[in-house]
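#structure-requests
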Amino acid sequence: MTQLRRGPWTILSERLGYENPWMRVREFDVLRPDGQPGLYGVMEPRQAAIGVLPVYDNGDTVLVGQHRFALDAWSWELPEGGGPEGVAPLESAKRELEEETGLRAAHWRPLSEFDVSNSITSERAYSFIAWGLSEGTPEREGTEADMQMRRLPLREALEMAISGTIRDGFSMIMLMAAVEQARRGALDPGLSRSILSGLDEA
């Protein structure tokens, strides 16, 4: 049997351990980097993680709150969701923002792209800043029936992330990346002014 290599790891065999409409788990019999045998499981989502930081002209943003089943806990987050295979991340971001908040944006910009938890999953995350906002009516899924929405200054959202009130890592990354890019002047000048205004730094 042909043995495959992944960096210093040798794959002896692989099998599908579990599968549902949203993800699959593959199990690999391996030789570890130290040469010892081992088992490695990888969770492969069928969707990318998508996140949006909406920014109003005055520097406000929007959080959505919902109960997260896996943790059995309430969570305040920026708008997030899944991007199906074959759909551009930006199109998924536009859909998620409108679905969860009713907001549409005239302007969009990529914010960050990262690996969600690279020791156990191949999941990739894509986030965007949205501005030039217009308000509408959310069209939430049944799993989001308990969702609440809160508009607040970016400064307050950032403080929630720093204090641990926001525990969602994706939201933390989006907030901190946008703030740092605005401070460095790496964003559209008007967008930077809005973000800094929301931080009371304009």
